[in-house]
Structure to design on (206 residues):
């Protein structure tokens, strides 16, 4: 059951600018829209789970929460694992990202009432300067662009609820507006995103 990983996490959400759920305060979790729709991308730099090397793996996750707040749960979610992974890697990644092995994803997993079957698909990532674009099979596209001020400095948030809970490095999340589109036909609906955050996380469990 012992595992660890270091990954870059790219989140996007259908809120207008910054998803209020990041603050982890229920009274502030007022969705900009009727539901909270959010795809995530995880680019694992290093990792190991029960002897299985996870370094270099790519995994995505898409969730829809009906509200009225994130903490009301009842979410529908699916995990997407890159097709260039082995069966052992797929097994370990699925368990970690569904929260079955503890760690930060156990928090998110506790808010999901329906897990759609995991999909093994191509995950292709391209970066051009501060812009990252990822295509997850025929299911969706994640686009994330780091937000900087007039002096070229990265805009961030620090020590808020989910940058702590998700164990971001120094509890810092980088603001990254998004233009993601998700068309998975098995999810409750299709959606597009506007807001987003990036961060580097170190996780372990077991």
């Amino acid at each position: 059951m012992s595992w660890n990983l270091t990954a870059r996490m790219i989140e996007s959400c259908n809120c207008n600018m910054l998803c209020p759920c990041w603050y982890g305060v229920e009274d502030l979790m007022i969705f900009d829209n009727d539901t909270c729709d959010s795809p995530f991308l995880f680019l694992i730099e290093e990792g190991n789970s029960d002897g299985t090397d996870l370094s270099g793996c790519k995994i995505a996750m898409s969730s829809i929460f009906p509200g009225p707040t994130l903490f009301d749960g009842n979410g529908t979610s699916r995990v997407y694992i890159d097709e260039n992974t082995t069966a052992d890697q797929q097994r370990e990644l699925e368990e970690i990202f569904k929260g079955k092995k503890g760690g930060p994803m156990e928090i998110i997993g506790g808010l999901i009432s329906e897990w759609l079957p995991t999909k093994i698909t191509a995950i292709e990532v391209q970066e051009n300067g501060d812009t990252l674009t990822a295509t997850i099979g025929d299911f969706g596209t994640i686009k994330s662009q780091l937000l900087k001020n007039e002096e070229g400095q990265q805009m961030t948030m620090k020590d808020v609820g989910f940058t702590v809970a998700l164990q971001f490095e120094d509890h810092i999340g980088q603001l990254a507006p998004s233009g993601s589109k998700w068309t998975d036909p098995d999810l409750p609906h299709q959606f597009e995103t506007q807001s987003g955050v990036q961060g580097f996380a170190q996780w372990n469990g077991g």
Summary: The chain has one domain: 3-205. The first strand starts at residue 3 and ends at 13. The mean pLDDT is 95.
